[in-house]
Amino acid sequence: xxxxxxxxxxxxxxxxxxxxxxxxxxxxxxxxxxxxxxxxxxxxxxxxxxxxxxxxxxxxxxxxxxxxxxxxxxxxxxxxxxxxxxxxxxxxxxxxxxxxxxxxxxxxxxxxxxxxxxxxxxxxxxxxxxxxxxxxxxxxxxxxxxxxxxxxxxxxxxxxxxxxxxxxxxxxxxxxxxxxxxxxxxxxxxxxxxxxxxxxxxxxxxxxxxxxxxxxxxxxxxxxxxxxxxxxxxxxxx
Amino acid sequence: xxxxxxxxxxxxxxxxxxxxxxxxxxxxxxxxxxxxxxxxxxxxxxxxxxxxxxxxxxxxxxxxxxxxxxxxxxxxxxxxxxxxxxxxxxxxxxxxxxxxxxxxxxxxxxxxxxxxxxxxxxxxxxxxxxxxxxxxxxxxxxxxxxxxxxxxxxxxxxxxxxxxxxxxxxxxxxxxxxxxxxxxxxxxxxxxxxxxxxxxxxxxxxxxxxxxxxxxxxxxxxxxxxxxxxxxxxxxxx
Lengths: 238, 238
Known about the structure:
The structure is a homodimer.
Chain A lengths: L9 E4 L8 H4 L3 H8 L2 E4 L2 H10 L10 E4 L6 H7 L1 H4 L4 E4 L12 H9 L4 E3 L5 H9 L6 E3 L9 H16 L2 E6 L4 H11 L5 E6 L7 E6 H6 L9 E5 L1
């Protein structure tokens, strides 16, 4: 009976970013865990199956169970996802790229696991936020990830100036992400809204062969803008 | 002549945390980079040599060049560290544990690299901050790492309340680190300063076999405090 079985665990499983070989950016230990699971909670089933196949999972993908967790999943459906784990089956949470739960789905199921006394085990993998910050030369003793800036004006410029001020007064690096097709526009908005001496890191195509990570002042960026349109990017103000 | 040689690159090289096998928490690709370098800028030379030996570097450690970069290094000495890279030699930056440049030395040399037009290349590895947040179930769309809280009162309680309020008003997870020997004290301070309904993640011994990561409300933690004294820890308020 379920009551007699120990609870399963919830593994937070990173997925590669960029066009990289799986085990160039994930420890091979992650495969040991992947091979031990047959229940996956995933942002997107198609992407997850492709990842598990590339990762060389040791049995047929058709024998595995997949459930989706993304912005379309209702709270009621999320609460059903935890039931197999309570009943003893471990699960792996996979987002489409990078680490689950950070700028990606996964936190909801981890929160539910904690409420049910289930261990949540994070594995090592690529976070574009951390990789960009490591390489930025900006303050890594205090930093904030703020997600996406508002799309509409005047909220957008107001938010940029708010975070620029916070970067200065609190000496806290301010990290942002943007949809690739809106990157060039965001760069223009930083260049028109921030002070000449403010530092801006532009990190695009992280871990790709075309990776470009550079920190300059807004004044320097104004003189020579890089071509970043449609390339996945992280921006950091410092 | 140096002017004719291409500049070197600066690699930000993660190091394991916890009592883990090196390649359980680092991709094997990192070894390819480590094996290609003979100049290392490190937080601590002894620890760095031990890590390179454990990582199985493919030649005698005595043939490598080491330079220290930590809180005792003067700005003048830091500016000397970049000279070999300008002259064409690539370097690896290693902190004592985890990822360099984040809650650890490394940002100063990365900043200097950017000012000299040198590529800074981040590699994948374990960040206790990111691992704790992934597993916390707290908001990973907006979060801040605030380093250490002030040690003295009344600044300490004031800071705890300031960040608790920011977690609520901005729905931004607030991450802190503490010296292991002061952990139990910090937990007591959270329990006496925060509201019953505030959520607190306690993450200790991350990636160790004794790993403990749990999110509960302050009210719940008050009823049963875990034994965390002298265990490396990350705390998150959400």
